[in-house]
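Lay summary. Proteins are chains of building blocks that fold into shapes, and those shapes determine what they do. In this project we predict the shape from the chain. Here is one chain we studied, written as its sequence of building blocks.
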Amino acid sequence: LAAALKELGEVYVVAPDRERNAAGHALTLHKPLRVEKLEERVYSISGTPTDCINLGVRIMKGKPHLVVAGINKGENLGDDVTYSGTVSAAMEATLLGIPSFAISMAGEGDYRFDVAAQFAKRLALQILKQSLPKDTLLNVNVPNLPKEKIRGVKFTCLGRRGYEDVIVEKVDPRGKKYYWIAGNRIIFEGRTNTDFQALQGDKISVTPLKLDLTDYETLSQLKSWESQL
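And here is the predicted shape, written in a compact code that computers can read:
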């Protein structure tokens, strides 16, 4: 990803020092953060993806023109965006007023990061030319396929995903119960043009997300409750 984006300008890499799956929008507030400079403009942070955004801006001594979060191993689709550290990093950058997008690769096995990186470069160039609306970020999911097998790009809405057997109960050798949060994925499709459908059709999904989570339609309906509460 960094190599592809360097064709557009100066790139800083600021990343967690370990896997941070399902880190969400967590900030590290209860312990100090360590920053290790690995090479010129490449830094490792002992914190979350959101920490990396805030420390990255400090390291650079100013805001970059663009933040690209990823490439994440595994898709971030539908409801999963609320758990995703990758999406949350892009969201944090957007909160700071920096155009941003998150990019993830669907599937498993040998990830074709070069395919996702080249798409990230094309999207980054488009954003640098035209920018994004205020308080809007993009969530990108790329099929783990050779470039020639990807059937285009689709701008989508979030789908819905549920799980079964989310909590797995086990017993340790001492007879005490312990639990894993796991589960088998089930896809619930309530509408068309979703990110799930795009990937199922071997297309790259790009979903615009807003920082403002307010449900304005319901807000207007609930106004009548004010006098009753």
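What the prediction tells us: The chain has six helices and twelve strands.
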